[in-house]
Every structure is written in structure tokens, then in C-alpha cells.
């Protein structure tokens, strides 16, 4: 997410915004669409697949007093907990390190305004507890419970979208074991207001390494996704009780190239901004289903997801497609 050299980054200078024609599809995740086996479920699966194939992303709206998705009170606590976290001294936040690239703390970059803190395996209470202890040695139970509850609830939305994608391609039988080996990185992002004559890029254009990313931004806005068919940028407006779901590099390979990794960025105006992302990673080898080959042969081999993540950070200048091809693409003479 901090790929300063990633392809097309020059386009941040020339903002080509498509405000008239394209908007991200909005898909309803209300209870009546979520019972597997029903007609509504099938049509929602189809809508998810079509949105992912055309836009690599979509907005999912949920019922905020239903069974699924965080309630407004939780969302308010999440954003105030994030503020508390970013108000800590930089030396404290810097204690959050990880051997996995992008899972620790980083900020203070000249080419983008983001400061970001990762919490690996965020649906495990122990993991959120040990992060909390690192940041607040004398404890901060409210932070810990809020973030853990958020990660757990939002991971369920991510699971549903993953299930819908598997089902829409007719490979639902593989979904349970796939989900059993999924872990969730939670990343909190804080963006400062640019100084005069400084870049207004919050985060440079990039694709995530995830299978899917589930994003929430505060009311300030600024997220944009690129419409790959014509290169224009679509600003993302979040309706109340909604998330944006983005396809990552692992989904590109798993889908045999049918779903592209979502190229996205954040552009800043005059207000500081907070966002929170939940990033799904497969713990081990992602099997690319034969069924996705269609009439051709598979373009990608099964691959180690964390291996792909590490490869990406050693090959900063490659686009999502180039790095996925280089990492697990099937070469002609394979
Ligand atoms: O802040 C956002 O809305 C996007 C952040 C992002 O793209 C990332 O963390 O990978
Ligand atoms: Fe991202």
C-alpha cells in the first residue's frame, strides 16, 4: 500500500475523474439476500461476481440493526479508538513491528500522507491483546475489545463475500477449507492534511496483496478506485452502514485472471482522515481451482500467499498483474 513506484502513479498528477458515467455498484447484504440456496442469495452471488469482474470492487450495504455488520455505536467507538491509537507517541507506535511486510507501523513518507498501524491475526483475541499491551503497557481494555469485536464482525462480511465468489464460479465445495485457513490483518490508517506545496496523495495508487480487502473510511472521504477499462478514477462514496470490498492480488491469481486486483488510491483535501481496512490472507497455499480454467488451461499455479506478499515487497516496481504473473504465472513451456 505504500508502493511509490507502482505503475500509473504518474496519473495522480493528472486527476482523470469519471464523475458522470461510472459509480461503484452497490450490493445489498441485508438478511433476505444472505440465505444460501435461495433465489436472492444466487442473484446476490451473481451481482458480486459481476461487480468484481468489471470494477474489482463494490460497495456492500448491510442492515445496521441486523445480525451482520457493526452497529453505528461500534463504528463510533472504532473511530475514537483509532484516534487514541494515532495520538500515541511515534516511539510507541514504532514498537509495532512484524517480519511480514506491511503488517507493522510506518509513517513519515514524503510521497504520501498516510501513517499506518497493522494488527496481524486480528480475529484472535490474544493477538489484539498483545498489540494493546505493546501500545498501552498499563492496559486499554476498551481499545482491545472494540477492535477485536470490529475485526470479528467485519471478517464475517468478508467471509460471505468470499463464499459468494466461490459459489458464483461453481467451486463452493472448496470454500470452507479455504476460509478455515484465512487470517485477517487489520490496518488502521491516519492521513494528515498536506502542507502548502506538498503532495495531496494520501496513499499512492496500488493493488493490495490480499484475497479481499474490506475498507471503511470516516466522513472525510478520499478513496478512489480505478476503472480498468478506461483508466479513470471513481471516487468512492460510502453510504451509511456500508463497506467497500476490493479484490486483491491473490484473488486475481485464484480466479485465473477473471478478477483483476483493484487499483486504488487516497487523495487528500483539507481535512485529516481516518480509515480502517481488514485484509484477508490465506495461511499457506492457495489452490487455483481447475474449474476456473474454462476451455483454456490455467494461467496460474497454486501459490503461497505470504510468499506472494514478500515477493511483492522485493519487486516494488511491478504492477499487480506483473508481480502475480512473475510469482505464480504458468509460463508457456511449464
Ligand atoms: O485509507 C483507505 O481508504 C485505503 C487504504 C489502503 O488502500 C490500504 O491500506 O491498503
Ligand atoms: Fe490498499
CATH fold annotation: Jelly Rolls
- Mean pLDDT, nearest integer? 93
What is the number of beta strands? 14
- CA-CA gap between termini: 31 Å
Estimate the strand proportion: 15-25%
CATH class: Mainly Beta
Widest sheet: strand order?
Answer: 1-2-10-7-12-5-4-3
Describe the structure.
This protein is of the alpha+beta class. It has one domain (26-328): Sandwich (Jelly Rolls). 32% of the residues lie in helices and 21% in strands. It contains 9 helices and 14 strands. The strands form 3 sheets. The protein has an 8-stranded mixed β-sheet with strand order 1-2-10-7-12-5-4-3. A 4-stranded antiparallel β-sheet has the order 6-11-8-9, with no helix packed on it. α1 crosses α5 and α4 (125-135) packs across α5. Bound molecules: 2-oxoglutaric acid and fe (ii) ion. Pfam families: 2OG-FeII_Oxy. Residues 180-284 form the Fe2OG dioxygenase domain. Belongs to the iron/ascorbate-dependent oxidoreductase family.
Amino acid at each position: 500500500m505504500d508502493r511509490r513506484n507502482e505503475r500509473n502513479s504518474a496519473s495522480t498528477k493528472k486527476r482523470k475523474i469519471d464523475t458522470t458515467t461510472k459509480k461503484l455498484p452497490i450490493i445489498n447484504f441485508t438478511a433476505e439476500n444472505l440465505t444460501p440456496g435461495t433465489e436472492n442469495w444466487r442473484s446476490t452471488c451473481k451481482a458480486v461476481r459481476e461487480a468484481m469482474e468489471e470494477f474489482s470492487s463494490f460497495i456492500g450495504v448491510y442492515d445496521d440493526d441486523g445480525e451482520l455488520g457493526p452497529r453505528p455505536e461500534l463504528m463510533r467507538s472504532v473511530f475514537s479508538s483509532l484516534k487514541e491509537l494515532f495520538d500515541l507517541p511515534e516511539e510507541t507506535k514504532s514498537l509495532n513491528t512484524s517480519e511480514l511486510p506491511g503488517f507493522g507501523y510506518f509513517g513519515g513518507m514524503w510521497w504520501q500522507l498516510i501513517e499506518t498501524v497493522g494488527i496481524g491475526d486480528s480475529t484472535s483475541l490474544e493477538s489484539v491483546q498483545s498489540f494493546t499491551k505493546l501500545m498501552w503497557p498499563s492496559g486499554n481494555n476498551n481499545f482491545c475489545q472494540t477492535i477485536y469485536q470490529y475485526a470479528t464482525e467485519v471478517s464475517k462480511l468478508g467471509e460471505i463475500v468470499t463464499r459468494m465468489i466461490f459459489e458464483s464460479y461453481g467451486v463452493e465445495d472448496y470454500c470452507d477449507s479455504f476460509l478455515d485457513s484465512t487470517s485477517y490483518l487489520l490496518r488502521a490508517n491516519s492521513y494528515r492534511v498536506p502542507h502548502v506545496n506538498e503532495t495531496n496523495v494520501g496513499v499512492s495508487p496500488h493493488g493490495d496483496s490480499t484475497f479481499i480487502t474490506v475498507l471503511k473510511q470516516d466522513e472525510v472521504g478520499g478513496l478512489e478506485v480505478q476503472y480498468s477499462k478506461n483508466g479513470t478514477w471513481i471516487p468512492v462514496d460510502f453510504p451509511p452502514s456500508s463497506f467497500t470490498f476490493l479484490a486483491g492480488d491473490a484473488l486475481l491469481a485464484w480466479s485465473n485472471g477473471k478478477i483483476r486486483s483493484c487499483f486504488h488510491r487516497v487523495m487528500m483535501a483539507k481535512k485529516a482522515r481516518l480509515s480502517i481496512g481488514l485484509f484477508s490472507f490465506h495461511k499457506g497455499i492457495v489452490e487455483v481451482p481447475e474449474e476456473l480454467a474454462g476451455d483454456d488451461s490455467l494461467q496460474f499455479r497454486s501459490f503461497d500467499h505470504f510468499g506472494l506478499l514478500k515477493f511483492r515487497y522485493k519487486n516494488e516496481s511491478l504492477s499487480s498483474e506483473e508481480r502475480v504473473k512473475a510469482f505464480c504465472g504458468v509460463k508457456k513451456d511449464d
